TrEMBL record:
Subcellular location: Cell membrane; Membrane
Residues annotated as binding substrate: K49, N94, R95, M96, G97, F98, N163, N168, N233, T234
Record's protein name: Dihydroorotate dehydrogenase (quinone)
Membrane topology: Peripheral membrane protein
Catalysed transformations (reactions): (S)-dihydroorotate + a quinone = orotate + a quinol
Keyword Flavoprotein in annotation: yes
Pfam families the UniProt entry points to: DHO_dh
EC numbers for this chain: 1.3.5.2
Domain of life: Bacteria
Binding sites annotated in the UniProt record for FMN: A45, G46, F47, D48, K49, T69, N130, N163, K204, S232, G259, G288
Cofactor binding note from Swiss-Prot or TrEMBL: Binds 1 FMN per subunit.
Enzyme class, spelled out: oxidoreductase
Organism lineage: Bacteria, Pseudomonadati, Bacteroidota, Chitinophagia, Chitinophagales
Organism: Filimonas lacunae
Cofactor(s) annotated in UniProt: FMN
Length: 328
């Protein structure tokens, strides 16, 4: 990414990279929750946590990029090593722990990016802001952290995702319970609706929820008028791993599993939520997307857009272009 950054800082080099990796076709364009996406393939949160590589990711042809997870204060995250590959299963295990530069630094970086785009007159890539709470913030005060991030990033992102589903911040997933969630989402919507042009507000959920919990999410999404859902985050389940990867994962220890082993469950969650919401709430699908066929499976299950992350690591920089080509 740093090598790409050096190259893309030169206009002609960025143009060459874009010509190689971006697929432009009006048939790929989609309007979802009032935003115009140049294509349906995005990069999920957790890769560009600090909005440091937007220029480069745009050159690689992504339709949108979700930055973060961003917390009010900068935090170093969990001890290293904290990111592990399971190549036999095309999977990753991470326990990063919301390492990021803090909302002030990220907001400034996004403002510079936005202003550069305005000055150049170029179409701006859609940017999502994934927000979370600091590790030291108790759950009863979590809503305050989400409010700080929402308010500070409001003018520099195109949509928001509330992340209460990472398994790597102690107690965070407890916030997926209906009453805790209602408190956070209602407060953010209150601020949002007070703005001249409210921003789409989405919720990212874990693939480990029961149908009963997913029903609660669907009900709450309708109640607080969420713009969409992101399904799904990483899983704590290891049952789909091959025996060699399972043994390796036991050595690795705690963390969220992503990639091919979560693909089927993620699609199930997308399909279930699409049915429960009557297709009225757009879903961004994430989990085990490596190819155009994987993306089509998610779209046919009821998703409006897809996000890659682990696929980007294993498939390389052509992933967005290849998926778009296969979708066409």
């Amino acid at each position: 990414m740093n090598l790409l950054r050096s190259g893309c800082s030169l206009g002609p080099v960025k143009s060459m990279v874009q010509q190689s990796f971006e697929l432009k076709d009006s048939r790929l364009q989609k309007e979802v929750f009032g935003l115009q996406f140049k294509n349906p393939v995005g990069l999920g949160a957790g890769f560009d946590k600090n909005a440091a590589y937007l220029n480069e990711l745009e050159a690689l042809g992504f339709g949108f990029v979700e930055i973060g997870t961003v917390t009010p204060k900068a935090q170093p995250g969990n001890e290293q090593p904290r990111l592990f590959r399971l190549p036999a299963d095309k999977a990753l295990i991470n326990r990063m722990g919301f390492n990021n530069d803090g909302v002030e630094v990220v907001a400034e970086r996004l403002l510079k990016w936005k202003n550069r785009k305005i000055q150049s007159g170029a179409n701006k890539m859609i940017i999502g802001g994934n927000i979370g709470k600091n590790k030291v913030t108790p759950n009863e005060d979590a809503w305050k952290d989400y409010e700080i991030c929402f308010t500070r990033l409001f003018d520099v992102v195109d949509y928001f995702v509330v992340n209460v589903s990472s398994p790597n911040t102690p107690g965070l997933r407890e916030l997926q319970e209906k009453d805790s969630l209602r408190k956070i989402l209602s407060r953010l919507q209150e601020i949002n609706q007070g703005k001249q042009a409210p921003k789409p507000l989405l919720l990212k959920i874990a693939p480990d929820l029961t149908n009963e919990q997913l029903n609660d999410i669907a009900d709450l999404a309708a109640e607080v008028k969420l713009s969409g859902l992101v399904a799904s985050n990483t899983t704590i389940d290891r049952s789909n791993l091959t025996p060699s990867s399972k043994a390796e994962s036991e050595k690795i220890g705690a963390g969220g599993l992503s990639g091919l082993p979560v693909k089927a469950r993620s699609t199930e969650v997308v399909s279930y939520l699409a049915q429960q919401t009557g297709g009225k709430i757009p879903i961004i699908a994430s989990g085990g997307i490596f190819t155009g066929a994987d993306a089509r499976e998610k779209l046919q299950a009821g998703a409006s857009l897809v996000q890659v992350w682990t696929g980007f690591i294993y498939e390389g920089p052509s992933i967005a272009k290849n998926i778009c080509k296969q979708l066409l």
